[in-house]
Amino acid sequence: MKRSGWFSRTALILGLGFLYVPIMSMIVYSFNNSRLVTVWDSANSPTLRWYFELFRNEQILSAAWLSIKVAALAATGAVVLGTLAGVALARFGPFRGRTLLSGLATAPLVMPEVITGLSLLLLFVALEQAIGWPQGRGMLTITLAHITFTMAYVTVVVQSRLTGFDDSLEEAAMDLGARPATVFFRITLPLIAPAIISGWLLAFTLSWDDLVIAQFVAGPGSSTLPMVIFSKVRLGVSPDVNALATIMVLIVAIGVVVAALLMRRRERRREREVQAATAANL
Amino acid sequence: MSVQGGRVGRRLVVAVPYLWLLLFFLVPFVIVLKISFSEVRLAMPPYAPLLEWTGDRLAAIRINFENYSYLFTDPLYVSAYLYSLKVAAVSTVLCLLIGYPMAYAIARAPGTWRSVLLMLVILPFWTSFLLRVYAWIGLLRNNGLINNALMALGIIDEPITMMQTDFAVYVGIVYAYLPFMILPLYANLEKHDPMLLEAAADLGARPITAFLRITLPLSVPGIVAGSLLVFIPAVGEFVIPSLLGGADQLMIGRVLWDEFFSNRDWPVASAVAIVMLLLLVVPIMLFQRFERRELEERA
Predict the structure, then answer these.
(1) For residues B171 and B140, is the Cβ–Cβ distance under 8 A?
(2) Quick one: residue B55, left, alpha or beta (phi over 0 = left, psi -120 to 50 = alpha)?
(3) Most buried among A47, A53, A85, B218, using CB within 10 Å?
(4) Using one digit for the tens of pLDDT, what is the confidence trace for B104-162?
(5) Number of separate helices (H) and strands (E) present in chain A
(6) Could you tell me the fold of the domain covering A61-226?
(7) For chain B, what is the domain count?
(8) ipTM above 0.95?
(9) Is residue B64 assigned to a domain?
(10) Helix, strand or coil, per DSSP, at residue B261
(11) How far is CA B11 from the centre of its chain?
């Protein structure tokens, strides 16, 4: 086993290199003064020039603001709906239509985005014709579309967290006379809180990142950040996009590291509590 | 077991996400199907209704198969479908070949390293997909980093054309989807009992034999899950081929996009989507069966 280890270890190192070289190159070149992205202007670099240009770019700033609003709303909606679906699938046993619900809940995970985008747009157009809502297309339709495709992720995360626990705690509470709503808020919800938080973050990121679905359901005058980036990079490489990428990578990296540290601390504390509890029982 | 909820509460918990998914996920497909049978029209929305009142309580149903016959007679569409399937299949195999040893190494790494390595694999997944694809333009261009480095080293005299080729599309897809392959594989490999391999070694099996006869068969569920997670979305991929690929061979996602946004032919775009969906029905159902089994195993 040890002898065969070198192969997979080499593959891991090369693979991680493959994953990170492109990201690193964006970061390095975001400090390059030259407008020709791949020519390093060593006389005037490193420079923060593109970062300043980025923060003066009204179009990018307003698109980023729209993306943040959409992502926050969509993630919140997705968490509510996804948690309900996840709880139903994990805890309600067999009920009529369960198979269809679980199918509908996981299909958006793999559905090609062009199909989801096109079908949602056609729905919005048909709805507007039939009942006059949603009027036109813009932030509302993007948010509705994003709730729909991100809630699948929340459902899966919540469902798998819940199936990891048996329902003895909930049953005990019921036996002690707690009402169903109380059981949910006092026991189930705290149990799945980590899943809900990671589900929200995942939904936020997916919404923040989405280009294809947003492009289909957005109206004129409502461009999200990926839409603006896409129309920029389609024309060629532009250095301020490198600066934007660097900022986004930095935020995500800090977020992931902090989340990992917090989670580790939580786990340690729980382990200590469990140890203390068992020691007290002995 | 019915632990949660009074009867009304329980119904509500099921009904709210159910209605949402029916309205925003299932009904839209019915509409796409409907519009794929209608005629294109210069109006807003740009398609003719299937059911039209012709006065005097008479309705005419106009079902039009032309969009579909168009798809199968114009070689552009057939070749785009075949090309997309090929690109997705080859990318899936490449992801598997690269991702499997990586997942294996992470699963075998000592505990503290394992979470760090896993985080390194997940981190790119949290950063913008679009920007990560865009990064490859800077690397693959004629005056990009790779060509500049190779020329500086004297390995080549003239830049190799990599942008707008199949090669660039493969690099982009493998790069973007690799974490989707690694994560289910890791989740599977991590569960394996090391005692099995030790027993095999004690009985005189060489490591490669033990791998082929124990680890590989046990990891089939991870392989299938990871492959489907890469293959299905890759068939309809739009961003990667339009940023890195050439204009001579189009993937079907891009064809759909152009039909919709450039030609404004919604009925043909719908027909393209329906045929793509038919091609993907079997893999999608396979994926769902695996998801369900995975969750039931944990319960």
Answers:
(1) yes
(2) left
(3) A85
(4) 999 988 888 888 899 899 888 888 889 999 999 989 988 888 888 898 888 888 888 99
(5) 12, 0
(6) MetI-like fold (1.10.3720)
(7) 1
(8) no
(9) no
(10) helix
(11) 34
